[in-house]
């Protein structure tokens, strides 16, 4: 409503202004129940690397980035500027201005190398840290990894009313009447793009939040992911609790899990502190099975919703058993609705899904599926009833545990059912409950204190416990050793630290992409401003979160040293890994920068585009770079698993080289001719191919409003 109120205020005619305001008020009263908020325009973006020239859209570095001007001319270091709302022109020193992109202004990103840390020279696995506004970074990641991300974990600003996040480069405080709307608008735009990154068949979105926005966030996620399943858990992050002037001491926060496709948490060997009540509820109800350490057999009779014959007529059929031998002999076909029983066979007992009260129920699976499960040994007869026998089976989860080796298959019973047992004392695997009270998830001890021990100062407020991250991710990537994990609110860098720990514990090759801006704290900003520094200056940028917290933590944790070069003390909880040993990992640090299309000659941007091509090809090996601006006709990079053809006349030679190099998995062909591109890729053995325009920038244009 803020934008509408502003527009109404600009109406000169008082009668018309009042009538429109009345109509708007009337419509507001008719809003449907649910999540209703104003979609504010996306934030303006300062482009510090862009030159200031005639026609540039600019803002004052020391002012609000949303208050823009158009440069009329530049003379001797001074810019003559017209404000957005036309009026008197202004003259500003060029050094006091920054180029600005508003929503819909196309911008052309590239990845500028900042630094690398390599502690695994023999490994081709490279993580990436990108310094950027995450809205623009997500647009680039959409081009790179649409439909390929296994897990997105984010810890967004909680909108507490403190000076903890910015919108249009201004802090949003508790007195802003539209702070919830602004927060939702900010989150919606980013989640809309993030959704495109996730694998539709099996992936998960994980979002942490506290009580300030958890209700709004839940509604937003339900609205944006209607096809997904969603759960929220509560987790203790500060056992002592944080005091409140007006309420209870807050000890927990919340984590939303959005399950995409077939995604679900996997069973893990959990300790008792993972809620014994949840473990008991997960155990088989058959006490005899527990004593024998058998998997949990359960009844074939469907219970709960959609469990009657009328609702599931295709699941009503007869199971024939030899009563004396207690063995299933035959599975009948679906019984027509005008019949209650199937044909009787001499010497066989007909078992139907009839409940103890005489109601007609249904089985869990179809006749064909039941026959398959009998062959697998997953079905057996249980206790006798008035209607014959209880038919038991091994559900998918229990059967998977047997196949995975949690239980040892010791043979087959006379009825061909599996006999599986677990070693006495062997740790069980369970799926956690929705209430977590885990000592190692204490954010004070294993977040703030751990980070301070690495950086030797308090540079970041309220980092997450590394073990909370590790455990949260493990429920979804334990069986995915090559998972791609993205965090676009990276903050202190806990996510990458946790991924490195996971890989070290189980030998995985999971890859992490982190995105964070480079904002300085509010107090540091005030100090720097008094000293005459502005955003974009080296003195300002070196104290930003990416350079001051995220990257130093990444380097130190990999080296196993603190910021002063001293070995880290202690070991990681839950493993024998010493912190001083560091991690066998490689990380590349980039800044998302922007090119001025009009100042770059056609076809001369290849050098700047190379890191993007490297990332899209999987980020294998150290990112290549060109020593000069000369674009080669053919670029073969087997250590990076990709190749580039920039000159179609060299295709024959390119084809020979690619087909003779099995390491090449991705090829890029520069051509504006679509039919020619399709003809060329037919003769290449590489599994992945992409067309690039001769004007490389057009491949990566973002901020067009299409998202």
Task: Offer a few descriptive terms.
707 residues; 30 strands; alpha/beta; 27% helix; six-stranded antiparallel sheet; 18 helices; SH3 type barrels
Order of strands side by side in the largest beta sheet? 7-26-8-25-24-9-12-14-13-23
Number of strands: 30
Structural classification: alpha/beta
User: What spatial form do the alpha-carbon principal axes imply?
Assistant: globular
Largest sheet descriptor: 10 strands, mixed
Instruction: Quote the CATH topology of the largest domain.
Output: Rossmann fold
* Domain module tally: 5
Name the CATH architecture of the largest domain: 3-Layer(aba) Sandwich
Q: Radius of gyration from the CA trace?
A: 31 Å
**Helicity range of the residues?**
25-40%
CATH class call of the largest domain: Alpha Beta
The low-confidence parts are 276-292
**Tally of DSSP helical segments:** 18
Distance, first to last CA = 22 Å
Mean pLDDT: 88
Strand share of the residues? 15-25%
């Amino acid at each position: 409503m803020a934008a509408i109120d502003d527009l109404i205020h600009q109406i000169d005619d008082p009668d018309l202004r009042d009538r429109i305001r009345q109509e708007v008020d009337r419509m507001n009263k008719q809003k449907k129940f649910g999540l209703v908020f104003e979609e504010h325009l996306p934030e303006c973006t300062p482009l510090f690397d862009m030159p200031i020239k005639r026609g540039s859209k600019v803002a004052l570095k020391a002012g609000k980035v949303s208050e823009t001007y158009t440069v009329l001319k530049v003379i001797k270091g001074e810019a003559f500027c017209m404000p957005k709302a036309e009026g008197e022109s202004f003259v500003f020193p060029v050094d006091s201005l920054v180029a600005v992109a508003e929503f819909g202004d196309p911008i052309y990103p590239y990845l500028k190398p900042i630094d690398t840390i390599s502690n695994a020279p023999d490994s081709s696995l490279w993580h990436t840290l990108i310094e950027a506004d995450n809205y623009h970074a997500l647009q680039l990641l959409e081009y790179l990894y649409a439909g390929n991300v296994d897990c997105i974990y984010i810890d967004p600003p909680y909108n507490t009313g403190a000076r903890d996040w910015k919108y249009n480069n201004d802090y949003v405080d508790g007195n802003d009447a539209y702070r919830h709307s602004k927060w939702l608008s900010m989150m919606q735009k980013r989640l809309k793009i993030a959704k495109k990154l996730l694998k539709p068949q099996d992936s998960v979105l994980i979002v942490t939040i506290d009580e300030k926005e958890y209700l709004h966030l839940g509604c937003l996620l339900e609205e944006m992911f209607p096809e997904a399943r969603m759960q929220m858990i509560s987790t203790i992050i500060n056992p002592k609790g944080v005091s409140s002037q007006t309420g209870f001491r807050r000890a927990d926060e919340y984590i939303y899990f959005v399950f995409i496709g077939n995604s679900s948490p996997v069973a893990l060997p959990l300790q008792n502190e993972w809620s014994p009540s949840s473990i008991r509820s997960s155990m088989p109800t058959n006490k005899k099975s527990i004593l024998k350490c058998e998997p949990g057999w359960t009844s074939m009779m469907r219970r709960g919703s959609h469990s009657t014959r009328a609702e599931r007529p295709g699941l009503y059929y007869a199971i024939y058993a030899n009563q004396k031998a207690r063995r299933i002999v035959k599975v009948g076909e679906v019984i027509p609705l005008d019949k209650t029983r199937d044909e009787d066979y001499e010497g066989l007992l007909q078992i139907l899904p009839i409940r103890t009260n005489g109601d007609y129920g249904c089985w869990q699976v179809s006749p064909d599926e039941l026959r398959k499960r009998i062959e697998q040994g997953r079905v057996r007869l249980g206790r006798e009833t008035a209607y014959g026998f209880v038919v038991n089976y091994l559900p998918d989860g229990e059967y998977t545990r047997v196949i995975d080796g949690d239980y040892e298959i010791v043979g087959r019973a006379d009825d061909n059912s599996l006999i599986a047992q677990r070693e006495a004392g062997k740790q069980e695997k369970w799926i956690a409950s929705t209430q977590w009270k885990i000592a190692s998830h204490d954010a004070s001890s294993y977040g703030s204190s751990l980070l301070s021990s690495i950086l030797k100062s308090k540079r970041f407020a309220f980092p997450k416990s590394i073990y909370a991250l590790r455990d949260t991710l493990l429920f979804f990537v334990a069986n995915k050793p090559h998972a791609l994990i993205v965090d676009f609110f990276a903050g202190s860098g806990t996510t990458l630290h946790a991924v490195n720990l996971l890989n070290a514990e189980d030998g995985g090759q999971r890859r992490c992409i982190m995105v964070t801006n480079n904002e300085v704290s509010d107090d540091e900003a005030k100090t720097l401003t008094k000293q005459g520094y502005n955003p974009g200056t080296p003195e300002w940028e070196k104290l930003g979160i990416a350079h001051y917290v995220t990257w130093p933590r990444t380097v130190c944790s990999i080296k196993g040293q603190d910021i002063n070069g001293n070995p880290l003390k202690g070991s990681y909880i839950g493993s024998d890994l010493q912190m001083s040993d560091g991690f066998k990992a490689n990380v590349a640090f980039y800044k998302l920068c922007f090119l001025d299309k009009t100042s770059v000659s056609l076809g001369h941007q290849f050098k700047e585009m190379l890191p993007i091509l490297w990332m899209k090809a999987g980020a294998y090996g150290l990112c290549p770079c060109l020593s000069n601006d000369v674009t080669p006709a053919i670029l073969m990079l087997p250590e990076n698993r990709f190749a580039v053809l920039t000159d179609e006349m060299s295709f024959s030679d390119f084809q020979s080289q690619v087909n003779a190099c099995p390491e090449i998995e991705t090829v890029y062909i520069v051509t504006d001719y679509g039919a020619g591109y399709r003809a060329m890729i037919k003769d290449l053995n590489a599994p992945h191919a992409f067309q690039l325009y001769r004007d490389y920038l057009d491949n990566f244009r973002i901020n067009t409003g299409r998202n």
